[in-house]
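Lecture 7 notes: from sequence to structure.

We start with a single chain of 137 residues. Read the sequence below before looking at the structure.
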Amino acid sequence: MPRLKSEAIVRAQCDAGLAAYLAEIHKKDLTSSAGTGIFLGTIISGSIWGISKVLNEKFGILEYSFIFGGALLSSILSAVLTWNNSDGKHELDFETVCGSLEESDESEEDEDEEDTDVEESEEYYSEEKLLPTKILM
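Now the structure, written as tokens:
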């Protein structure tokens, strides 16, 4: 049974599998890249607008839209083209974390089995007082 909320989240992610984990990572990368594209598009378009006001140049809304859209599109496209590059690292991370959870589950099961074996044995209780003679951890 999970002891912490974060452990429960990790167990749910491990139960969902590697494909779901990679899909979540890709979604986060895409969202982050879209945010970066919006930020850069706004900065570049705003800078060009400020420069055009100083130089008395006239740009229409279409030119600013192309600049903004180009920054957004290039940022998203770079994320889509490169997100498989780090899949190997994410697979290794997934296997490491989920493998350690499986090992801890197995060790807890072994400890539970040892506890039941000791409790059921006749040597566990002294014959005179019927008090536990061993301290289990």
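The chain has a mean pLDDT of 77. Keep this in mind for problem set 3.
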